[in-house]
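Q: Protein A?
A:
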Amino acid sequence: MSEILNGKEYIRKLINIAYLSIGIPLLFFIWVYLESTAETLNAIIDQEYKVPVFVFVFIISLVLIVLGHKKYKTYLREARQKDILRDKLIFYQKGMTVRFVAYSISSLLISIGYFLTDFQPFAAFFGIMIVLFSINNPNARKIAIDLQLKDDDKNIILKGLDLPK
């Protein structure tokens, strides 16, 4: 993990992780969606298996999201126990990365399920994932609240100031 120099740079790194996590599955989903609406996408899986595939993908995605959230909470607890802001931020970044990788894998599974079945509920499910990404998108205020930062540490994050050496 590269050296964290200031609050602004740190938030930019977290945002990059978040955007990459949604961007890659989103590109694949857009292609599948456009093929589906143009009616050039032929379902690979038979009609009778669409619902079971959807349920399977839904369950696997839900498990990934829950596991990612639990791991994020574990890193968040560890981060809150640290005394030095730099250490807190390192653990927070690890937690956010795990959470967004779980979201990304879930989104890819949804897109693959949509590609294999051409089953429209996958599109709605992907929309829910976009909302989940949006709600958990990192910003300075969210970081300060999540880490329960006080005074100087809070100002470093909110104002994008340099971290103490």
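Q: Protein B?
A:
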Amino acid sequence: MSESAQAEIFNASNAPDIYETGGRYGQQGVDFQRYWAVSRIIELVGADVPDFLILFETIQDVLELDSANAPTRARIYQLKMQKTGEWTWKSLTGLPAQPRKKKGSTDMTEPVPFTKTPIGKLAAALAELDQIQAEGIFVSNSGCSAELEAGSTAGSVPICALTALCKDRRDEISPELAKLKKPIGPDVLHLHRTALSLDDLDTHIVGKVYGLLEVAAPSHAGQSRPFADSLFATVSARGRKTSPAPDFAGLVEHCGYSKANFMEAVEALRSIPDRQAVVASWLARLNTERMRISDLSRLQNKLAQFFDRRLEKGEPNPTPLVEAVRIWVATNPVGDSILDFLNAGTIAIQAQLSGTPRDEIHVVLLLEGVSQCLDRT
């Protein structure tokens, strides 16, 4: 990136009404923004783009550059959640900007300036950039009811440029776009209805991470949830702009996340032994040690159910069985025989928690034994 382009982005990130700071939305709205950013990072990596740099809450909510060092294109995103209904054209643009009588009064309301509306803010941000090609995208879980030239509405398609809107809407916004610091065409502004669900943001992202790790680190796909949690925490930290950055490098350090950062995280994940893979090797060992085939089959089935639940809901809360097993394993580590370890542990736990099914004890013993071995490595 040339120094002039760096300076342009840095200056825009500090321009009034262009930069964003946290704390203006409810927690669900903040989570929506951050989970969407994680989703976008996964999409970029999955598409195998050569490079990218994401800047959080600098120029609007998310600024996406096509390179960490020498970008030629930028996408500016503004993200807003909508709990019910669709966005109206008026709510997004303030157009047509006509004063109305205040309720119960003869006084007239003051129309909201275009540059104070969601689409107006995006357009004003685009007008700050000359050095690189840029487009602005309004992202929400809900679509917009504005009519399309081809029929239906903008909310009926996942993404559309404002040039696809009907002539009346284009005629309303074009004069406003021409008044900005730099004239902006409607072709660089888009409305995007994301598939990200407000009902279960976390599970949506874990599923996307799992799909990516199946390709990038298949032996560690079982660690999708902790990896997703770590990525979400990193994005959240980058989105907290506590004080102005002194320069562009400082902006990247405090608010940026690149493809290189993601690949470093994947490499760090590869260096961590995968518990699920170790469990599989222990099951093979139990077969060699001639564990009864019926017991082994039930153990395999129970473990598969456990890992499916963990992928969906995360680690379960400790139960009396888990606590009892942890205490026993701490003083009775796995020896040369995994089968002997399971048999001895089952006898000890059944003496404490009578009536507990043998299969459940086997599962918890095996998982705790594996965890103890991994903690020693």
